[in-house]
Specification:
4 strands, alpha+beta, 91 residues, single chain
Length: 91
Amino acid sequence: MNISEKTKESIASYAKMHIKRVTENSDVETDADNFDYWNTTQDDQSKALIDYNVHFNDEEWSCCAYSVESPTKDNPYYQIDTNDYELIKLI
């Protein structure tokens, strides 16, 4: 997976904000699951769609970005490619 540094920084920044909100109030209302949050963005250089997941597991937060496959003749929906991913550093 090839994500621009600017897009990685943007995803990490959003993930950190999400983590802060949820850590301060685990019942805060967000637009998804607070502890398994998914969202979509677009790479600023390639314009490729990227799905990212901010996840709390085993007392640790992580963030991972996945490439998104475009619809095809056989599959009319966008689909996450879980084999093509990159961990996003949150430090």
